Amino acid sequence: MVSPQSRTSEETVVIIDASAETAHEARELSCRTFFVQLPGSPVDRIVGDSSGYYSVDFSAPAFSEFVKTVLVPLAPNSVISRTAKGRAAASVAHAVLDACRNGEQSRKERK
């Protein structure tokens, strides 16, 4: 088991619509983990001492705005899910993150 204090990786993983089992496995990774769950999800079975948690309707059109304002600053290395609903949201998140990263790269190249 990896203790929160021994986490040294700069990697950040966002897990959407995690089950308690998936959350437990993800917390064992040596990276920062953030969980994006639907409102009403059981927080106590998902979040650990060293993980972040966001309650948001990731099936709503406003999810892309959440990605821009919340996930982009976290600069996740990956956004994943093991559920169909979560994979659709992860796909949206990847598209928004890529667009933001490409926009930032373009601005740097113009300077």
How would you describe what is shown here?
This protein is an alpha/beta fold and 111 residues long. It has a single domain, classed as Rossmann fold. The protein contains 3 helices and 4 strands; from the N terminus they run βαββαβα. The chain has a 4-stranded parallel sheet. The chain starts with 11 loop residues before the first strand and ends with a helix.
Annotate the secondary structure layout.
Blueprint: E1 12-16, H1 20-27, E2 32-37, E3 51-55, H2 63-74, E4 78-80, H3 84-110
Parallel strand pairs: 1-2, 1-4, 2-3
Helix pairs in contact: 2-3
Q: How would you summarize this macromolecular structure in one to three sentences?
A:
By secondary structure, this protein is α/β, with parallel strands linked by helices. Helix content is about 40%, strand content about 15%.
Question: Poorly predicted ranges (pLDDT <50, ≥5 residues)?
Answer: 1-8
Which class in CATH terms? Alpha Beta
What fraction of residues sit in β-strands?
15-25%
* Strand segment count: 4
The tally of helices reads 3
| Share of helical residues | 40-55%
Q: What's the N-to-C terminus distance?
A: 45 Å
Write down the Rg: 14 Å
Give me the CATH architecture, please: 3-Layer(aba) Sandwich
Tell me the structural class: alpha/beta
